[in-house]
Amino acid sequence: MKENVKEFSDHVFNKEWNEVYSTEQFEKEMYYNGDDLGAVYLGNNTVFKLWSPFAKSVRLNLYKSGDQNANDLIESHIMDQEDKGIWKIEINQNIENIYYTYFVAFDEKYHGLYDCEICDPYAKACGVNGKRAMVVNLENTNPDGWDKDKNPNINLPTCESIIYELHVRDLSSDQSSGIVHAGKFLGLTERNTTVNNKGVIPTGISHIKNLGVTHIHFLPIYDYTMLDETTKDLGDEYNWGYDPLNYNIPEGSYSTNPYDGNIRITELKKMVQSLHNDGISVIMDVVYNHTFNEEYCYNKAVPGYFHRIDEEGIRSNGSACGNDTASERAMVSKYIVDSVLYWAKEYHIDGFRFDLVGLIDVDTINKIRDGLNAIRPNIMMYGEGWILDTNLTKKDVELATQKNINLLNDFAMFNDDIRDAVKGNVFDEEDKGFVSGNTKMIKSLKKSIMGMPDWSNSPDKVINYTSCHDNYTLFDKIRMCDGEKDFNTYVKQNLLAAAIVLLSQGIPLLHAGEEILREKVDSDGKYVSDSVRHPDSVNSIKWDNLNKKEYFETCEYYKGLIKFRKSHPLLMLNTKEKIEQHMEFFSLEHDEVIAYRLYDEKEEMIVIFNSLEKSFELKLENSHEYDIYIKGNKAGVDCIGKCADRVFAEPISCTVVVYSES
Ligand code: CA
Asked: How many A from CA of 243 to the centre of ligand 1?
């Protein structure tokens, strides 16, 4: 997202063709529904197919290496034109690990304007920097035991998931991680790593496992554009990966050898397998709403087809990246569906987070849903359902926005209501949220705590969070909006924010490192919003902070909250009816305090979020004796005190007490 805004270029825009792309006739006559686009490796032969309805000729180039600068063409073959805009050729020899490109040529009247050499949009493997595709025998990329690998949480109800949003590199790029494969997929397979390789405080995957989250959601791990994969060292060159290059190939910079097309595939599979063995499911962030720029390879095969371009050649820009994807076009929709299903099948991916899904049409998302359901149960889907200004190329198309959530099957959306209510508006540095004493969004906050913000009446379609990779980190935002408090107060506000997210109905999502008071500060000491291209020194998780008391205690608090959530089904109710039946708010005189009861025949739980800088007492009508589980900076499943006719809440903190029948 953001980034990559390019100067307008008409290289891949052809007015005449653009006018027909979204017509019913074109869609009908040119839609190809085969599942064999790209290079299908069959051992002693390989079949190549490319969809390019306006090309006059297409040539297949076979290369020895994957480096686009290497002068090592083996041979070229003219491809045959078939129905439905398909170009095909079969090579009758074993060409495993041979690299390839297509040269697509158009009518002479365009003076070579569109003729070019491209990577295969359906490529499954590629060389360094993703300019040449590779013929891959996927069987040979599987790690040992891959056939037995499966989602460890396949039966987990959606609302019982706890998601951790992570960038592959941030986990291990700081030296204090003690991880050998720093910045790589393999860094996530290293177990029992500790802070600075000494002591007992775990880092990396051991830390995440201890924390208790059920899913890791990775920032883009498909092949993206801007990071030069030939760069050997971690450091200044960094990217989040919202600049898609090859949608169906892992990013090369996360592999130990980006030159050999097999290695990145095997290493990603090893990562998935290792996480599965540790009980953690894997979600990938997918960015189909835009491409890196208009010169995306599919646009070169079919000039301008992939994007929403108006009659004047102006590209729709709801994504702020200058090139909204025309998902409403049949072959684009098919491409997105094929791609997601491929990751689920080939890489055993357990969930997909759709970047700016509000730009993608409802039909495409529902087709993906149906396709995933046919592969395995319980593959999560969620996304950013913001309403954005985009110019659709067809009439009567519905987009996958928050307001259309009920048109989507089993698809959750990020809840920006809770995010902004808890910590303040992300676009206004000085705006405070509930934890800093601002109660203006109190009504909306209560709805979110019930897992039902204005746009959803179903908690299993709501992703609750206060921070993610975008904008400032939670701790930075808390400090920025209220510059006059001391460190300990900020920590309390952070803990309160965590408690709200983890004790609300819905699906909680945490930004990696939030539990260690993650900050992003540049070399001038400034807080960094959107660290997309800042170096590792800004982005990395600083594990050695765990040696400091407040950081360690914060981490323990998050861990305690997660344990507590997991052991109380009342916190994970999955329908409106159940919530209305089992949950009620206390009416209080202060908006700075939110208190509610959750109850069923087995237990009664009282939750208090006190944002006041003084203590608060809630009088109870019952004469039960309650066990205290969360109080001050402590949270967990062990009783830490008792109370009876009143609950005492410390300043800026969450308090939870439980009475149970047994
Ligand atoms: Ca790349």
From this structure: 9
